[in-house]
Amino acid sequence: MRRAFQQVDVFTARPYLGNPVAVVLDADGLSTASMRRFAAWTNLSETTFVLPPTTPAADYRVRIFTPTAELPFAGHPTLGTCHAWLATGGLPRDGGRIVQECDAGLITVRRDEPSGLAFAAPPLLRYEPADAELLLHLAEVLRLAPTDIVAAQWVDNGPGWVAVLLDSADAVLALRPGAVDLAVGVIGPHPPGAAAAFEVRAFTPQIATVEDPVTGSLNASLATWLFDTGGVQDAYTARQGTVLGREGRVRLSRTADGTVWVGGDTVTCIRGDVAL
C-alpha cells in the first residue's frame, strides 16, 4: 500500500540545517512491527506515524519511533508531524491551536510567530537533583572532572533526560563524550548579547548517531529547569547542532500560567509516498 510521506526539517528555516523527521501520513492499519521496521530503515533519530485520534479532544494521534524503540513523546517529531499534517490539508478543530495525541497525553501546538510552530511542554515525569553517584557517572560519560559540572538534574519528560549545566557555551562545544548509556542533555550560557542565550547538546544511546542535532523535548525540560531556578527570566533562544554542522535554533518562553512553549521553524524537504 502506498502511504503519503514527508520528511520535514525542524528548528530551521533553511533545509538540511535542522533535525529531520520522517512522517508517514494515513498510517491507520499499519502494524507496530511495520512501523518499527520502517523507522529502523529510515535511520533518522525519529520517524512518526499519523493515526486517527482516539479522543474527540485531539486532531490526530501520532506514534514516535527511533530506529530501536518507541517513545511516548519527542519534541522535534511533534513539530514536524504537525507541519506535515497541516501541509496535507489537516484542519484543526480549534483554528487557533492543534491538539496532538501521543503516549504522553495531549500536546497543544500553536503557530509560532514570525514563522513555524510551538508546542506546550508536557509535564516532567522525573524532576529532582542528580545524586552524588549519578554526578560521578555523568562526569565519566562526558569525560569531565566532577567540578566542571555546575549543576545536574533529572528533567525527564519521556525520553529519560538528565541535564548537565556547564559554565559556558564553549565548554559545551568542547565536549567529546565517551560511551553514552543514558539520555544526557548539556547546556551552557553564551556571553551576554550573543544571538543565542545558550548552547545545547544532546547525547542518547536511543539514536544511531548518539548525538541528536536539535532536540525539542530536551530544550522543553531544560527551559522548565532554567525558569524555575532563575537561570532565565524572559524568553530566550537556544542554539544546538553546531558541532554537527547544523544551525538549530529553538525559541523558549513561559506564559503567566506557567506553560513552557518550545518553538522553531519547520520546512518540508521531501514529499511523496512510501510502500508500507
Query: What share of residues is helical?
Result: 10-25%
Q: What is the tally of helical segments?
A: 5
Q: What percent strand?
A: 35-45%
- Provide the low-confidence segments as ranges: none
Gyration radius over CA: 18 Å
What are the secondary-structure elements, in order, as H or E? EEHEEEHEEEEHEEHEEEHEEEE
Q: How many DSSP-defined strands?
A: 18
Arithmetic mean of pLDDT: 95
Shape: globular
Main sheet specs? 18 strands, mixed
Main structural class? alpha+beta
* Beginning-to-end CA distance, first to last residue: 5 Å
Describe the structure.
With 276 residues, this protein is α+β, with helices and mostly antiparallel strands. It contains 5 helices and 18 strands. It has an 18-stranded mixed sheet that branches. Helix 2 packs across helix 5. The protein is globular.
What attributes characterize this protein structure?
276 residues; alpha+beta
